[in-house]
Specification:
Layout lengths: L19 E8 L10 E9 L9 E5 L5 H6 L2 H10 L2 E5 L18 H4 L4 H18 L11 E6 L1 H12 L6 E5 L14 H11 L7 H14 L3 H10 L11 H17 L6 E2 L3 E2 L3 H11 L5 H16 L19 H10 L20 H12 L8 H6 L10 E6 L17 E6 L17 H25 L1 H6 L15
Parallel strand pairs: 3-4, 3-5, 5-6, 6-9, 9-10
Antiparallel strand pairs: 1-2, 2-4, 7-8
Helix pairs in contact: 7-11, 10-11
One 2-acetamido-2-deoxy-beta-D-glucopyranose (NAG) binds next to loops.
Length: about 500
């Protein structure tokens, strides 16, 4: 069972964005007065573009080392000069180097209990206040405005930061943020249907059909020892398959299919292993191009096609099915997915995956065995963050690519005049937060233009509300225009 598909894929790019690494002491527990402990929260800062009273662009870090997000959020670097902005990327507690109990952070429930989205948001509010206090230049303003940015779970945090703490951030760009991927808000089958549609339509021949057939066939073939040995060889696995490995094997295979859909970008990107442009299309060309005559040739063809993902460098010796795809903060996210971020997923005959029902009891039991904590309320985030009832919010842009499975839990229509939804039909997982690229589809360029005009409005409203004369005197607003192509 895909207990949790890591929300964000952490892939390294060839570009290197530069910044300075800093740490700040933050309270371990923001909500009690009986615990005085603090820990060091890491953040990255770049003040090269910060001029006058320019805003702070604040990335609300998600489930991984913060450098990964800095390296894959080129959009902020691209537009910072236009806005004279200070750039900050904050690391989420319990990920990367931000470990409240060091290497013992995951060792017991008493340590892990401080890993919640509410504590993380309070960390960000604390850091924002520190930044505003230490980055104050003008006699006209007591503080500079802050805009939140985030992708995926980070996008959920950016949106929630604005909802919960509107005095701390003037607005939020929430890219591919599945704030509605919770029980009671979104049918559990939607996610896998989107993945299947991406495969169904990637090339002329329906590439989801052979995949849909494959699950039963693989179970059948691996039911005996000869079959296990055959598949071990055919799929170039590192260690011989045992009966107890079959579920892991199928999970590894289905995770690769999901991951390729998420990073189905129009240009090559680097994950743990590098990927070509449009990995799904490449996979499907390879799969549908092979001669399939019987069960074994179908499984062989799939094994060969998977090399698009596992062996694009041609340097992979063998496949380790225990190596889940590169989400660095796997332990932390697994705990979050067991406590607060329970995102129901299921499969049925309308998608290409193996049948799987959503069984909260079973899920919760597995979590209890692993972490020693039991969540009985899968709908807690609805109480915490309002579910679909977010009309009281303001100044948030939700963007979603329709090729992205996570759009299943996204906000796909406008909520109000200040809570907007931007659709990127040709976009995969938060493509709009990546730096400009000559292969960007028109829809992502337009989405970025929408972001820029929203940010412009939020911060000009802020400056204007503080001092109308200051606003008129300020020269830099005149230059806030955004022309795609400047940064390529
Ligand atoms: C800020 O980022 C720009 C663009 O990557 C880089 O050229 C500059 O050196 C960085 N500045 C600092 C202080 O890291
Ligand atoms: C990165 O920024 C630091 C200052 O923060 C600077 O010393 C260094 O030269 C920069 N490196 C590059 C490659 O721009
Ligand atoms: C927290 O710090 C205050 C002031 O130093 C101290 O009086 C108090 O006993 C501390 N509380 C705990 C629970 O350590
Ligand atoms: C954890 O950190 C402590 C103190 O730095 C060290 O002594 C210990 O060897 C570390 N344990 C592991 C498993 O890395
Ligand atoms: C596997 O498939 C073959 C032929 O398709 C069939 O004869 C056999 O009974 C199946 N074995 C199992 C274990 O389902
Ligand atoms: C995967 O890991 C489990 C437990 O760590 C081990 O028993 C199994 O042999 C591994 N499987 C493969 C194919 O490496
Ligand atoms: C990767 O590609 C190379 C070159 O084609 C091949 O020799 C090797 O077996 C492949 N490895 C895997 C795991 O597919
Ligand atoms: C999947 O489940 C549905 C409903 O339980 C059932 O009708 C269908 O036959 C199952 N499909 C497969 C391929 O097992
Ligand atoms: C939301 O409103 C904006 C501005 O009017 C519009 O450009 C956009 O297409 C709307 N979004 C959706 C999903 O309809």
């Amino acid at each position: 069972m895909r207990l949790n598909v890591a929300l964000v894929l952490l892939f390294r790019e060839i570009f290197c964005y530069n910044y300075t690494t800093k740490f700040i002491d933050v309270p371990l527990d923001h909500f009690s007065f009986t615990n005085n402990a603090t820990f060091k929260l890491k953040y990255l800062i770049n003040d090269s573009f910060w001029i006058d009273d320019g805003p702070i662009f604040f990335y609300t870090g998600n489930e991984g080392a913060v450098e990964t997000f800095a390296e894959n959020t080129g959009f902020i670097f691209d537009i910072a000069p236009t806005f004279n902005a200070l750039i900050v990327f904050a690391e989420h507690r319990y990920y990367g180097a931000t470990l409240p109990f060091g290497n013992a952070s995951f060792s017991n429930p008493g340590h892990l209990g401080f890993l919640t989205s509410s504590q993380a948001l309070a960390d960000y509010v604390y850091l924002i206040n520190h930044l505003q206090t230490t980055h104050q230049r003008s006699e006209y303003l007591s503080k500079v405005p802050v805009v939140a940015f985030g992708g995926s779970y980070g996008g959920m945090l950016a949106a929630w930061l604005r909802m919960k703490y509107p005095a701390s951030v003037v607005g939020a760009i929430a890219a591919s943020a599945p704030i509605w991927q919770f029980q009671g808000l979104t049918p559990c089958e939607n996610f896998n249907r989107i993945v299947s549609n991406v495969y169904k339509t990637a090339v002329d021949d329906d590439c989801s059909a052979p995949i849909q057939k494959s699950w039963k066939i693989i179970r059948n073939i691996t039911a005996n020892d000869d079959g296990k040995a055959w598949l071990t060889k055919a799929w170039k696995l590192c260690s011989p398959l045992k009966s107890s490995d079959i579920d892991d094997l199928l999970e590894w295979y289905s995770e690769i299919l999901v991951n390729m859909a998420m990073v189905n970008y129009p240009y090559p990107t680097k994950f743990l292993a590098p990927l070509p442009a449009f990995p799904v299309r490449n996979f499907c060309y390879k799969l549908t191009g092979e001669k399939i005559t019987d069960d074994k040739s179908l499984v062989t063809a799939i094994g060969n096609a998977l090399e698009i993902y596992t062996n694009f460098t041609k340097a992979t010796k063998c496949n380790n099915i225990n190596q889940t795809a590169a989400s660095l903060g796997e332990e932390g996210w697994d705990f979050q997915a067991c406590t607060e971020m329970i995102m129901p997923m299921c499969s049925d005959d309308n998608d290409m995956f193996e049948n799987q029902s959503w069984d909260f009891k079973k899920y919760s039991d597995k979590c209890y065995t692993k972490w020693g904590v039991r969540q009985t309320n899968a709908e807690l985030p609805i109480l915490e963050y309002g579910g679909k009832d977010i009309t009281a919010a303001s100044n948030i842009v939700f963007s979603n690519g329709l090729l992205d499975p996570w759009s299943s839990g996204g906000v796909l229509s406008n909520i109000s005049s200040t809570v907007s939804s931007v659709i990127i039909p040709e976009g995969a997982h938060h493509l709009d937060l990546r730096g400009e690229n000559r292969n960007d589809p028109k829809s992502v360029i337009e989405a970025r233009q929408f972001h820029v005009s929203s940010i412009r409005k939020w911060i000009t409203d802020f400056y204007y509300s503080r001092d109308k004369n200051y606003f008129k005197k300020s020269i830099f607003f005149n230059k806030i225009t955004y022309t795609h192509g400047n940064n390529i």
